[in-house]
Structure formats: structure tokens, C-alpha cells
Design a protein that fits this description.
With 285 residues, the chain is of the alpha+beta class. The chain has 8 helices and 14 strands. Strands 1-2-12-7-14-5-4-3 form an 8-stranded mixed sheet. A 4-stranded antiparallel sheet has the order 6-13-8-11, with helices on one face. The mean pLDDT is 95. The protein binds 2-oxoglutaric acid (AKG). 2-oxoglutaric acid is lined by residues 110, 120, 125, 156, 212, 214, 225, 227.
Length: 285
């Protein structure tokens, strides 16, 4: 079955009824070229050269040979990566897909390095966000490819339509939380298992109950991805935890990404100290 995919036709992304229906039915939409080359180049420069991002990155074992390396922050901030997390084509699209105002729940850079990048177990993001006191799964992620992402370097894999089965029990495997595999196995017999191969700048908008996974990166090619997560404003978590409570988000026009001159000032982002995240287990090595 082909992926539910769309092309950016202009500088703005029009969210059509068909896109909303695909999100409702399949749990995702893929938007090719969400970031234009010039925008992507600026974001890449920020991610690769910003000392704060490098300093706050941490690694966890994937329970096999691989290491999952990431850097996570609470608020988008005013640098070019923040412009992506606040722009209309990202935030406005999530609001239309989730049906109401959203706020920034966190952003993370997933650094799946060549040869060493770890796997991600089958999971639903709401599998663990649930434990943060988010009462409804009115939450989603925008996964933006920074590098080419293909089967060989551990692209994202999804079970199309799995958001419809509700939240599945999750348990720890090494540092990560994974969904009950017996259940996933049964769902795999009924649902399409799709590999989401992406070019740099492509973006997958997906629901928090969509089952997804990715393999270790045994290839010589780095696979970095930039993930912005959003929660509906109406779904303010009832527990204080390591991600923010409702914080109004100041949206910016799409042009703000290309116009932004701030590559290095990460003031206000509030990087996560992984020791405070109770939904992962840090590697003791
Ligand atoms: O980067 C990946 O392959 C998956 C990341 C992911 O699933 C997550 O952070 O929840």
C-alpha cells in the first residue's frame, strides 16, 4: 500500500479534507519537502554546530549493540530550530489535524549515527506520555528528516491505522519503553507495516497512538531526525513532570525560518536533564 503522502505546493501548506481524513484513518500524513533546501541548510547548521545542543546530548543503550543518542528541550526558543517548532506549516497543521490549539510539548534531535545508531522498539508515544498525566491522546509528533532516511540506515517504520487500537501496555526493554509485543504481533497480521523512507526536509505528521519502530543503523550513513511534539491546549497534563504544562505558543510565519539569523542562541529552550525523565532508564555504563 502506498504511503499517504503529499507535496508542498507553495511556501504554505494547505491542510485539505483528504489530509485530515488520511490522518484520521491511517494515523499519519507524510509531507514531502516540508523544509526547503535553504531552510534545511540553516537548521542543519544549527544542529551540527550549536555547542549547547552538543553539550546536552545523551546516549542510551538499545539493549543490543546500538546506542540511541538524543538531545531534548522543552521550549522552542528563538533560534532557527525554534522557528521550525513555531511555524505555521508545522504548528498550524498539527492544530488542524488534532482539531484545536496545541502547545509545544518538546523537541528532540534523534542522532542515529552511522554504524552505531541504536534501534527503537515498537511503541506508541502515548504509551509513555500517558504516564505523564496526559489524560487524552490528543498529541502528535512531526518527524522531520535531516538526513536521507532509508531502510538501510534505520528509517521509521509504522503500522498504518494502529492509532485506532487505543493505548497498548508498555514495559521497559533496556532504557526504552516498548509496546506489548504479543499485541503488536497480532496487529501486524491485520495492519500494513510500512517503511517511511524520507529525503532530507520531508516530514511525517503522526498521531501519538500510532505504533512505530526503527532498526539500528548498520550503514555508513548518519540518520538524524528532528522531532517536534505537540499537545492539545485542552489536554494540560494533570501531573507536573519533565515536559511542560500548557504554555501558550507564539506562532511565526513560515518565512521566519529562512529569515532567522539566530543560529546559536538557545536561551529559553530548557534542555532536558535525562536523570529527570522517569519514562526512560539511563544506561549505567
Ligand atoms: O528516531 C527514531 O527512529 C524513532 C524515534 C521515536 O520513535 C521516538 O523518539 O519516539
Amino acid at each position: 500500500m502506498p504511503l499517504r503522502e503529499y507535496q508542498m505546493q507553495s511556501a504554505d501548506l494547505e491542510v485539505t479534507d483528504k489530509m485530515k481524513q488520511d490522518f484520521e484513518d491511517a494515523g499519519y500524513i507524510l509531507v514531502r519537502n516540508l523544509l526547503k533546501n535553504k531552510e534545511l541548510a540553516k537548521v542543519k547548521e544549527a544542529l551540527e554546530t550549536n555547542d549547547a545542543i552538543i553539550k546536552h546530548a545523551y546516549s542510551m543503550s538499545d539493549g543490543q549493540e546500538g546506542m540511541t543518542k538524543m538531545c531534548l528541550w522543552s521550549h522552542p526558543g528563538n533560534d532557527v530550530t525554534g522557528m521550525v517548532g513555531r511555524c505555521e506549516k508545522v504548528v498550524g497543521t498539527c492544530e488542524k489535524l488534532l482539531g484545536g490549539e496545541v502547545y509545544h510539548y518538546h523537541t528532540k534531535l534523534m542522532m542515529k549515527e552511522a554504524k552505531t545508531g541504536g534501534r527503537h522498539l515498537w511503541h506508541q508515544d502515548y504509551g509513555y506520555w500517558y504516564r505523564n498525566g496526559c489524560l487524552f491522546p490528543d498529541m502528535m509528533t512531526v518527524f522531520i528528516a535531516i538526513d536521507k532516511s532509508y531502510k538501510g540506515n534505520g528509517c521509521l517504520e509504522i503500522l498504518e491505522g494502529s492509532q485506532k487500537c487505543g493505548r497498548i501496555e508498555h514495559g521497559f526493554v533496556a532504557a526504552q519503553q516498548g509496546a506489548d509485543l504479543e499485541r503488536v504481533k497480532e496487529l501486524e497480521k491485520k495492519l500494513e507495516h510500512l517503511y517511511v523512507e524520507m529525503e532530507p526536509g520531508d516530514a511525517l505528521f503522526f498521531h501519538s497512538n500510532l505504533l512505530h519502530t526503527s532498526s539500528a543503523n548498520n550503514s555508513p550513513d548518519r540518520r538524524w531526525a528532528f522531532l517536534c511534539a505537540y499537545n492539545r491546549a485542552s489536554n494540560n497534563p494533570v501531573l507536573k513532570h519533565h515536559h511542560p504544562q500548557y504554555t501558550p505558543l507564539t506562532k511565526v510565519p513560515n518565512s521566519a525560518i529562512a529569515d532567522c539569523q539566530n543560529i546559536t542562541d538557545t536561551e529559553g529552550k530548557e534542555f532536558l536533564n535525562p536523570a529527570e525523565d522517569k519514562t526512560i532508564k539511563l544506561d549505567s555504563k
